[in-house]
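Objective 1b: paired records.
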Amino acid sequence: MREIHHFINGASHPGRSGRFGDVFNPSTGAVQARVQLATADELDLAVQAAARAQIGWAATNPQRRARVMFEFKRLLEARMTELAELLSSEHGKVVADSKGDLQRGLEVIEFACGIPHALKGEYTEGAGPGIDVYSMRQPIGVGAGITPFNFPAMIPMWMFGVAIATGNSFILKPSERDPSVPVRLAELMMEAGAPAGVLNVVHGDKVAVDAILDHPLIRGVSFVGSSDIANYVYARGAQNGKRVQAMGGAKNHGVILPDADMTQAVKDISGAAFGSAGERCMALPVVVPVGKKTADEFRERMVAEIETLKVGVSTDAAAHYGPVVSAAHRDRIAGYIQMGVDEGAELVVDGRGFAMQGYEDGFYIGPSLFDQVKPTMQSYQDEIFGPVLQMVRADSLEEAIALPSKHQYGNGVAIFTQNGRAARDFAAAVDVGMVGINVPIPVPVAYHTFGGWKRSAFGDTNQHGMEGVKFWTKVKTVTARWPDPQLDGHADSSFVIPTMK
């Protein structure tokens, strides 16, 4: 059986722990490979290689680092289909969605290609008598990223693209469920011209995560995953003196006002709720129609829309979405559906009975729709992370704003309306980090920044864009004076703090 190795110091590195994780093909349910799980010692090998490489890489001028990013982008685009098929075989999402996964990561690489401009400091001439002040951004050193299974290409590139372009070296700990594409990304980075050790991939479980959080040479950690683990990563990393940005879970809401284009809203919400089997932190699993007429119409149209959806194997170009990542996750989703029923919500469409003919052992679950969901229900409060859409009816825009604002998660929210004033007021008032106006999945473009609020994010700095540049660099400020004793004489000693008085 195929073994997936670590990638350390520019080469494949067979593990020594003797521990492995199974990598499934979600479409068939079969184990297709096994991935090595690292020890703390193996993590240290990667960190030492990264620390050695970082010195020379930081001394490489930003324009030359940008050229490596340009070449990495070219290589990845040339292998897009190959990588998407590999990604789908381990994750389960359809190939078209995997290409989107890769493309959204590449957009951050495109941003990183402009890193010379982003690294420019500030300069003040004549801040005082003969004194100039300037600042420079310098890399923090060795960075690390701990990434989830649902975007095995995009989220790693969100992290290492900016980190490496700014002069850091990087340790990537991807999900052990779909680890092959992250290794290929590291290989392509070396092929693009990055020195050995600049990008390393170490597979593992909690042992590897804790080793990253405890290692003294790792100066910054970026994480995406569930909120409980994000909180743990943030607390342990910060306790060890590291910069940490830890993105957690989500329960994104889509508010539909009575004046919305209902045909478009149903199409948008269907794709956002059920696309990628709902395994997105920016999925839209809660819809909030305002008014009984709006809710009744949405329900009727969504039931009809669900009947048109096709669930299939990841290689089926006609499928809207494929299997979920594992049998355990499928069962977890089914458990939440039963929880909703037990709590008194109305299960309008039940996806639990779905079976794929010829692929009965695959990890499939059909789309589900609930109505009459109440904010007090546990199934509403928790992140289900599956193809389950919950309807929470509201009587007013104010009530609709309060639902996502009071929820424990604050990642994304959307409003569907043709009223510009209502949309403007909604965007200003809602207590959520990313807002879509007639956009169901408001993931910002790469030169802006990604990050939620409340239990959706721990730490003060968002991912990618200029926020990413700030996270992966530290500012050094220089105050300089070049006196000429023949012209200026010698100043008397001063024992008070300098001022510009």
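Objective 1b, second protein:
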Amino acid sequence: MRRLLAICVLSVWAICASRSVFADQRDGRLDIYFIDVEGGAATLMITPAGESLLIDSGYPDYGGRDRDRILKVLRDVAKQDHLDHAAVSHWHLDHYGNHAALASEIKIHNFWDRGIPETLAEDKNFEKKMVDYRAASQNKSKTVKAGDMLPLKSSKTPLSMKIVTASREVIPNVGEPNPFAKDFKPPEDDPSDNAASVSFLTKFGKFSFLCCGDLTHAIETKLMTPNNPLGKVELFMVTHHGLGSSNHPALVLAIAPRVCVMCNGPTKGCEPTTNATLRQIKSLQAIYQLHRNVKLKADEQTPAEFIANNVDDTVSCQAVFVKASVAPGGESYTVQIGLDGKPRTFQTR
């Protein structure tokens, strides 16, 4: 009898232990993974209600490199066997390249994008490439526009995701006057699909996170001048991999983030003009990079302890991610590099 009781106790313990790996989706925290896709973008969010959302999906090809990196984080780290939501910020291949490939491996319940254009000026093969995406989404992807709210479930702490730009349109320019709006000349229009990027503003209690795809100066200033409709943001995913054609000071300085994460590659992004803008943010406490930019000197980018993949080439890259984890209530959050990195704690304003 005692042996049987011991077996039962061990069985219960094993079940509880196996369930504990799913704690991220049940302990009231919001987790955000910035997955290394070598200068593309793939941002995975796991909500306290257990919903999963992936914004962008990196490059296709390369032997399934980026697809497999996303699946590894999704399955092995976040312990998810499906995606509730998969969003596309815009129609450049380093952002939607693996949506179809992921759908062949896991169930994706909802696809979100800015609408599929018939053609794309910068990609002559766009129509052909869209065949796989249309098939994966079964031609049922949902079109978002500025002002829309993605239907994410809230738990005890209110959670929301608002679309603030899409297809070159922006939310109404209401709010406090932007003190940085008058300091810069109006930029030229951008005809590329970068300017049509979908931008996502996530709020979780007092915490906020802004992700703008590859949005460029013309729409950034349209959004942020003369007023600031976004307010201050805690966590900012540096736009367009840190390229200088994005990250206009009128946006970056006005949102005044505490922490920035740059999804750059060894030779892509992390441009000096963007780094100079980031260093002007008075509230800034840390900048994380997914890669060391091998073209820049050490003092021209963030310190080495804030770089996830400090390597010279993609062959030796271990695809280490950056993770932000927001405490219940959104009162504080931690950011760490990989599973074994030391979490740094930041207090929400």
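The chain has one domain: 24-347. The helical segments are 2-20, 65-77, 93-96, 99-103, 126-136, 217-224, 249-255, 272-278.
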